[in-house]
Here is the input.
Amino acid sequence: MIEEGMQTVQLELDVEDCGMVHLLEQDGGESPTPARRFGDIEIREGLVDLLISTQWGDGIPFTVTVADRDPGIGDYEDITEIDYFSPSGRLLMAGFSFDWNEEKAPALPPLPAGPGNYRLRYHVRGADWESCLEGDHYLQIWPAEPAEPKVVKATSHYFKHLVSQA
Here is the structure.
């Protein structure tokens, strides 16, 4: 779906283990964003790990919106925001895999401001019952000034536990 200044893509990601998908630079470069974990998002050495609601599965639906402005908060149980600096302005998404295969990592639309600081807002629903239905995992990306990570909404027991570990 394309709206003025926003592009939304529907992905299907295969996750072999570890209950996570990755956001990473298309050129394989590393972001200078400091390593940190906040709730269901972890930034480390060139990639962002986003925890999903199940340990593994093929064709896990995942929605991503890349926007030129804050696209607004969705109606989800758990929502987290964190900064990410993209040195390339070009990102891929991939499910956790023991054997990395770039062909299984779809490219996202180019980031609207090119290289720079972006805000990631990760929405999840169904975490307490390991749901991975269409729309259960939704990531928004838009250019933004640096800001502290924050929990926008914490409803599920699973998410509250993750936040307490941060």
Notes: The mean pLDDT is 85. The chain has one helix and twelve strands. The radius of gyration is 14 Å. The first helix runs from residue 157 to 165.
